[in-house]
Amino acid sequence: EVEKIRIKITSLGLTESRITSDETIQQLFVECRLNNFLAEETPLSLPKPAGGQKIHYNYSTVINVDQADNCAEREYLKSILLKPDLPADSLKFTVVSDPPEDEQDLECEDIGFAYVSLKEIFQKQRDIIEQDIDVFDSQDASAVIGKLTVTVEALHALRSVHEECKND
């Protein structure tokens, strides 16, 4: 069977912050990045939710990490499992502000980041299913600006990579 990491970005809710009060931030999409070689984003940007509400992306994607075709991804997963001090052991979710149609001079702006540690999934032997993870302010990493509900199913792939490490 093809080994894969399944990622689902279900929804996003914001707490009161500079983001909710900023009039120029109107539409949001979410990007998911694995290290530096893979980035996927929700095809839709949705209107910024009011405080206490959520916007629903229900976006799923799959990263194949089988030996045959996805060597780079696989080597990266190996490095996560073998090098305990590797800082980039996480899937990184970025909440991005998409400028409105009539403001094309504005750039897309990263407003927040959220992380899922693949190493932790392996250590706990537990996938992350519909879990709320903190979104940190891009301008102040100690401030939480909201919650992103995500699913990351990676355990099967990580176990397989781990088996391979033992056999190398």
Automatic annotation (TrEMBL):
<feature type="domain" description="RPGRIP1 C-terminal">
    <location>
        <begin position="3"/>
        <end position="164"/>
    </location>
</feature>
<dbReference type="Pfam" id="PF18111">
    <property type="entry name" value="RPGR1_C"/>
</dbReference>
<dbReference type="GO" id="GO:0031870">
    <property type="term" value="F:thromboxane A2 receptor binding"/>
</dbReference>
<dbReference type="InterPro" id="IPR041091">
    <property type="entry name" value="RPGRIP1_C"/>
</dbReference>
<dbReference type="InterPro" id="IPR031139">
    <property type="entry name" value="RPGRIP1_fam"/>
</dbReference>
<dbReference type="GO" id="GO:0032391">
    <property type="term" value="C:photoreceptor connecting cilium"/>
</dbReference>
<dbReference type="GO" id="GO:0046548">
    <property type="term" value="P:retinal rod cell development"/>
</dbReference>
<dbReference type="InterPro" id="IPR035892">
    <property type="entry name" value="C2_domain_sf"/>
</dbReference>
<dbReference type="GO" id="GO:1905515">
    <property type="term" value="P:non-motile cilium assembly"/>
</dbReference>
<protein>
    <submittedName>
        <fullName>FTM protein</fullName>
    </submittedName>
</protein>
